[in-house]
Structure formats: structure tokens, C-alpha cells
Amino acid sequence: MKISHKLFAILTMVVLVAILLTSPAGAETISVPMDIDGVRIFVVVLVNDKRARLLLDTGAGITLVEPQFAKGTRELQSVFTQQLAGFSQASIRRVSLTLGELTLKDVLVGVLDMTDVKKRAAMDMNGMLGEDVLCRFRSVRINFKNKTLELER
After folding, report:
1. Are 52 and 70 in contact (CB under 8 A)?
2. Using one digit for the tens of pLDDT, what is the confidence trace for 70-81?
3. What band does 84 get if pLDDT is binned at 50, 70 and 90?
4. What is the mean pLDDT of residues 1-15?
5. I want to staple 112 with a disulfide (CB 3.0 to 4.6 A). Which of 16, 50, 67, 90 is the partner?
């Protein structure tokens, strides 16, 4: 079947318009490096300018980090959180969180000693990236081929 040049041009325009309509003007995608360890996905971020390896946990309501990432910050509140090791008390603090090229200031996170969690789950991590941060983005995509977490604003 041979398609005329005119029909091909019209089809091309329709496809381009559809792409433009589904990608909002000014949409930006941030790529965050990730590691895949079995069924677990970890992202590499900066917490208060310190490199951290966080477990991607879409079911976690709050992002958690270990105490060394919150040095020099002030406790805002104390809360109980349920982890693999049972219930623990976390300190809520404000930190800066750098995801790829994007730095979010004054992000509320839970600060928690995760020694028992890491032992029980046999994981090398510094915390968990939760839904509270992920929901700030229009979409969140896991790109397994490029080993990146793609966050669209």
C-alpha cells in the first residue's frame, strides 16, 4: 500500500500535535541515578549535600534518613513509625534533598537509626525515599534500561 506525500504529511502533523498536547509546555524531567539490587530499587541522592543511597519506597508516607544526614538540624516533632524491626521513634527535621539536578529545600523527613532495619533486611542503605517527595512530581517513571528514576515536573 502506497501512501501519498500529502497523506503522509497530514499523518505526521497529527502525530506531532498529539505529542505536543500530551507533553505540557515547559515540562521538565529530572533523572536520578538508581541501583537495582534483586527486587529492590535504590536511588542515589544528596541529603544536606551528603551522598545517600535511599530505598525507593512508594508505600512509605514519609522519607526517612539516618541521623548523620541531619546533623546541625533542629527537631521539629517526634513521631512513631513502623519499620521491619517494629515500631521506632523518628525525629522530624528539615533537610535539603538533591535529586539529580534538582534541589528541594526544607523537605520534612524522618530521622531514624536504621541499624536494625538494615541488618534484618540485609540492605546497604541510608534511608527510604517515600511518597511525600514523589508526589511533588507530575509523573514518576522507572527507566530500567538507563537505570534512572525519571521525575517529571
Report:
1. no
2. 887 776 666 656
3. very low
4. 57
5. 90
| 54 touches 66 (CB < 8 A) | no
Domain 28-152 bears CATH identifier 3.90.79.10: no
Q: What's the 3-state SS for the chain?
A: CCCCHHHHHHHHHHHHHHHHHHCCCCCCEEEEEEEEECCEEEEEEEECCEEEEEEECCCCCCCEECHHHHCCCCCCEEEEEEECCEEEEEEEEEEEEEECCEEEEEEEEEECCCHHHHHHHCCCCCEEECHHHHCCCCEEEEECCCCEEEEEC
Is 65 in contact with 109 (CB distance < 8 Å)?
yes
Overall residue count recorded for the chain in this entry: 153
CA distance 111 to 80: 11
Residue the block writes with cell 539490587 = 37
pTM of the model: 0.75
Contact 96, 107 (CB under 8 A): yes
